[in-house]
Amino acid sequence: MVNISGARPHALRITIALFCILSVFLFFDPIGFASTMNHNLAPPGSTTTVTHIVLFKFKPDLHDGAVDVACAKILSLKENCLRPNSQHAYIKSITGGRDNSPENLQNGMTHAFVVQFENTDDRNYYVEQDPAHLAFKKEIEPLVEKITVLDYVSGVF
C-alpha cells in the first residue's frame, strides 16, 4: 500500500497556487484576452462602421453599355443618398467592379460593390427608407438575374 497521508498539504498548496494564477488572469488580464474580445454587436445608433457587400449577376443578354450605366448609378449613390434631416450624404464610401477572380467560385456573380456606413442607423435607413436607393433598386431589378447581400461589422464574429 502506498501512504498518501503526506499528499494533503501538496494538494492544498496546488489549489492555492491555481487560485492565485486564475485571480491574476481574471483581474489583470496579462495576455490581453478580454481586451481582444468584442462584445459590441453594433447596436442601432452605434458608431461602428458597417460594411455592406452587394454581389450582382447581371442578365447575360444585356449589352455592356447597360451594365456600365447601372454600375455608374450604383457608385453615384454615395452623392445621391442624403440624410433626411440634414440633406448631407451619409455613405462613407462605395467601391466596386467586375469580377476577375481566377478561383472560379463566383457562383455566377459578375460584379461586386462594397458600401460603408458610419453606423447601423445609416445602413438601416439606406436599406429600408432612402428614396434614392429604393428608386435605384426598382430601376436595376430588370437587369439582374441574382443579387446577394452581406453586411458585417469588422471583428464581430
Give me the Rg, rounded.
Answer: 27 Å
Strand order of the largest sheet: 2-3-1-4
Q: Tell me, rounded to a whole number, the average pLDDT.
A: 84
Give the helix/strand class. Answer: alpha+beta
The largest pleated sheet is described as: 4 strands, antiparallel
Spans of 5+ residues with little confidence (pLDDT < 50)? 34-40
What is the rounded distance between the termini?
A: 54 Å
Cα shape: elongated
Order of helices and strands: HHEHEEHHE
Oligomeric state: single chain
Subunit structure: Homodimer.
Domain Stress-response A/B barrel: 50-152
InterPro entries: Dabb, Dimeric_a/b-barrel, HS1/DABB1-like
Transmembrane segments: 12-33
Give the topology, please.
Layout: H1 7-28, H2 33-36, E1 50-58, H3 64-80, E2 91-98, E3 111-117, H4 120-128, H5 131-140, E4 144-153
Antiparallel strand pairs: 1-3, 1-4, 2-3
Helix pairs in contact: 3-5
Keywords: Membrane, Transmembrane, Transmembrane helix
Protein name: Stress-response A/B barrel domain-containing protein
InterPro entries: Dabb (IPR013097), Dimeric_a/b-barrel (IPR011008), HS1/DABB1-like (IPR044662)
What attributes does this structure have?
single chain; alpha+beta; 5 helices
Summarize the structure.
By secondary structure, the protein is of the alpha+beta class. It is built from 5 helices and 4 strands.
